[in-house]
Structure formats: structure tokens, C-alpha cells
Write a structure and sequence with these properties.
By secondary structure, the protein is an alpha/beta fold. Helix content is 45%, strand content 15%.
């Protein structure tokens, strides 16, 4: 049965706050605004956390201090998975997160964070910016008063860190694996058990045996977490997260109250954050990949062909079934998949064509 989009969007841990209090007036000092940005990431975490910091710093600098942004890591004001509701309810004017976490707010949300067997990083950005994604994103969150802009593009993730080798699909069955969002649902259908937890809890969960395997990001962020201290086996390719994008969420009432130049500064800072994260991650991943191999003895292994084939097949089923829960989600899915079809046609002659030739 189709879900009621308005009712889905109005759920959340901070929803009661939003319902009982008006949006608080921003702090003012001689005509200057002071805003808070809450994030889904550990404070100052390499890549994601630092990108959020840099976006806040750039907004402050480009506005010549007229809009001062202070950034808070997960747990400093609200937990990681309550960032959406904090921005919606006015606890913070800005939030930096991943739309894959917000599937309970709207079934179309994961497409804007990147989905399994979906678009690559440059394709994801192109769909949102030029392929019709942004207007669909705006419409999806219009009912709850949030504006979202791409504010981070990630290279494909590693599939994850495992305590033992995976030789076939059967070896996944029964494992407890930290994998968030729709990729976790795919794992469940493969016979594993996905466990959703914020980044700050992953290392301790792996170390204590709460989970048998974890995924987070690329070599850079994984090295920073220290997964190599627990296991030496890391699987690729990142078929579950080929092009994750992060979002800068803005409380619409606060955003609409800004002058046009400050609104543009927020959009430019978010856009710069997307480019910065992709470029920095590409560089740092290459460095960290060598460090993990040469200094820590990590073995990077390709997933077995049957795991790849079945994961990709089930992913498309999950995407379709998720979108069918809501009319607007169906529009998002159809736009996304049509864009995916077009870029898949040209990829063998451009990016894949060149990279395949270079590798050969």
C-alpha cells in the first residue's frame, strides 16, 4: 500500500519539538547572523567531518562574517541519526549528512545519497545538477521546510572489512554486517543481517564482535578509523555505494529569511564542498591504499563473481520496490534510472574506455 508522503516526512525524534515551538530567532550581533551546523560525522573526522568544517568556514569567510557558522560533530548537540529532525525543527539551521539515512522520512531520499548499483560519483553529481534531480529533491522536502544541496561527492567505497574470507554467496549467510540504508536491505536478502549504526560506533562494534564485518568508505577514512588493527581483509568493489553524495540541509524558514547574496553563498559553499571532498578523497585514498598494504599488510580482495552478480540483481529489485511506496519516489526513481541508462551507454567509450586501456 502506498505511504502517505506528508505523514512519513513528519515523523522523527525531534518532531515534537518542531510541532510545539516556532523556529527560534537566529542569534544577532550588530546585524550578523550566527548559525549552527550539526553533522552525522565524528568531529573533525577526515574527509566528511572536515568537509563540513570547511563549508562552514567558507560561508563565514565569503559573507565577511555576516553569516557565521559553527560546526558540531555527531553527539555534540544531537546524535548522528537525528540531524535531519534537528534542522527541520530549528535546533540547528544547517546539517551535513547522507540522504540514505533518511529513508524513513521519505522512500525517495536514498537516491539523493547514492544507491546500490546506481550512479558513479561524477554521474550522481551530474544527475542532481543537470539531469533533473535537484527540482525533485526540492519538491520532496518542500512539505517539511528543508532545502538540500550536494555538499560532498565520494569515490566508490570499499565493500567492507571482514574477519574471514568470502568465497561465495554462502559465506555471507548469517554474518552481521554494518551496512546502512538500502545496501543493508540487499544484504538481508542475501542471507546476512545488516546492522545500521553511525560512524562513531563502528570501530568498537567490530572490535567487540557485535558485528562480523563493517563498511564505511574508502581507504582514507577506513585507515583513519583503524579497521586494519582488527582485520587484514578488505573487499572491493563498492557495488553497494558506487557514488555516495552528501547533502547540506538548510532550514527553509531560515534560508528564505536571508538576503539573496547570502543564499547564493550557501549554495556556492556546498558546491565547493562537493568538489573538494571528491578531489581530496581521490588523492588521500591513493596514499592510504599504499599505506594499508605496505605498512599494515592489508589484503584487498575482489568479491566473488556470484556475490557481485546477485548483489547487483537484488539491488535493482530493492530500488524499484522502495520507489513504489510513494508517487513522488516513483518519479525520482524513474528520473534516476533513465539517467543511469543514458550514462551507461556512453561510459564504455569515455571513462571506462580510457581506464580499461590504461590498466591494460
Amino acid at each position: 500500500m502506498a505511504l502517505d508522503r506528508r505523514s512519513i516526512l513528519k515523523r522523527g525524534a525531534v518532531g515534537a519539538i518542531a510541532a510545539t515551538s516556532a523556529f527560534p530567532k537566529p542569534a544577532l550581533s550588530q546585524g550578523r547572523l550566527r548559525w549552527k551546523m550539526v553533522t552525522c560525522w565524528p568531529k573533525n573526522f577526515p574527509g566528511l567531518g572536515m568537509t563540513a568544517n570547511q563549508i562552514g568556514e567558507q560561508i563565514t569567510k565569503m559573507s565577511d562574517g555576516r553569516l557565521e557558522v559553527k560546526v558540531y560533530g555527531a553527539g555534540e548537540i544531537v546524535p548522528a541519526f537525528e540531524v535531519f529532525d534537528a534542522v527541520r525543527g530549528g535546533i540547528a539551521e544547517l546539517g551535513h549528512g547522507w540522504d540514505g539515512y533518511w529513508i524513513n522520512k521519505h522512500p525517495g531520499a536514498p537516491f539523493f545519497g547514492g544507491v546500490p548499483n546506481g550512479l558513479g560519483p561524477h554521474e550522481q553529481h551530474a544527475w542532481i545538477q543537470y539531469g533533473g534531480g535537484q527540482p525533485l529533491w526540492d519538491e520532496m522536502y518542500a512539505d517539511v521546510g528543508i532545502r538540500s544541496f550536494v555538499a560532498g561527492i565520494n569515490p566508490p567505497s570499499m565493500f567492507g572489512w571482514y574477519g574471514r574470507e568470502i568465497g561465495s554467496l554462502d559465506d555471507l549467510k548469517g554474518l552481521k554486517i554494518r551496512m546502512a540504508g538500502l545496501p543493508g536491505e540487499v544484504l538481508n536478502r542475501l542471507g546476512a543481517t545488516s546492522v545500521n549504526m553511525p560512524g562513531g560506533e563502528i570501530m568498537s562494534a567490530l572490535q567487540s564482535g557485535v558485528v562480523d564485518a563493517v563498511e564505511w568508505g574508502g581507504a582514507w577514512s577506513d585507515l583513519a578509523f583503524g579497521f586494519q588493527k582488527i582485520t587484514k581483509i578488505c573487499y572491493y568493489p563498492g557495488i553497494h555505494e558506487p557514488g555516495a553524495s552528501n547533502a547540506l540541509m538548510v532550514n527553509r524558514a531560515a534560508y528564505d529569511g536571508l538576503s539573496s547574496d547570502l543564499q547564493e553563498i550557501i549554495k556556492v559553499a556546498a558546491h565547493n564542498g562537493a568538489n573538494r571532498l571528491y578531489s581530496e578523497s581521490t588523492h588521500q585514498n591513493s596514499v592510504s591504499f599504499e599505506v594499508l598494504q605496505t605498512e599494515h599488510g592489508v589484503q584487498f580482495k575482489r568479491l566473488p563473481d556470484d556475490v557481485i552478480a546477485e548483489f547487483l540483481r537484488i539491488s535493482l529489485e530493492v530500488l524499484r520496490e522502495t520507489a513504489e511506496k510513494d508517487a513522488h519516489a516513483t518519479k525520482i526513481h524513474d528520473s534516476y534510472m533513465e539517467f543511469r541508462r543514458r550514462v551507461s551507454n556512453i561510459a564504455p567509450t569515455v571513462e571506462l574506455g580510457y581506464l580499461g586501456a590504461r590498466s591494460a
